[in-house]
Amino acid sequence: MSPLWTSVIAAAGVLAGSGLTGVLGLMKGRQDAADRERDRSEGRRSQRIETRHAAYTAFIAQSRSAVVALSGAIEVRVSASDDAWGNAITEALNASEVMYHGYVDLALAGPPSLAREAELLWLRAIRAANQVETLWARRDATDQVATVASLLGDEDPDRMGEFIEQQKKLIELAREQLGGDIVD
Description:
Four Helix Bundle (Hemerythrin (Met), subunit A); rod-shaped
């Protein structure tokens, strides 16, 4: 074999080796970029789940506090002192306001279907608190308990059935959103 052909074969081998190294390096770079993007995506997903979990649990706890405060306000009779009444309705209105802030956090965390359920629950609580305040302002003892209980969704003010059922529905939707049905 002539030295010229040996040089040509050696040069071709160097070029092929360089090309192969470049292709392998490019493939490795693309794989690394895909791995980094997958890690970022998983991090965003985990953060979204944590944010939703915090928003959901806070709102559910706030809705429970609103029910307790409304129950307390319902129990205050028109014949009670203005201070007793004022404290009870202030607590109920404040609990409903805190519940609204929780609703906003939940709505921002999403999804819209869960936010709609939370909004219905909050609206039910704030309507009941406003109704208690109105009944007190008029000193109307006739239907105080029944009116407020019906706004909360039950004629039995100790149970507040529809409110509790709506709360349970919200908990179920939240559990689904957080992957509570997924088995690893």
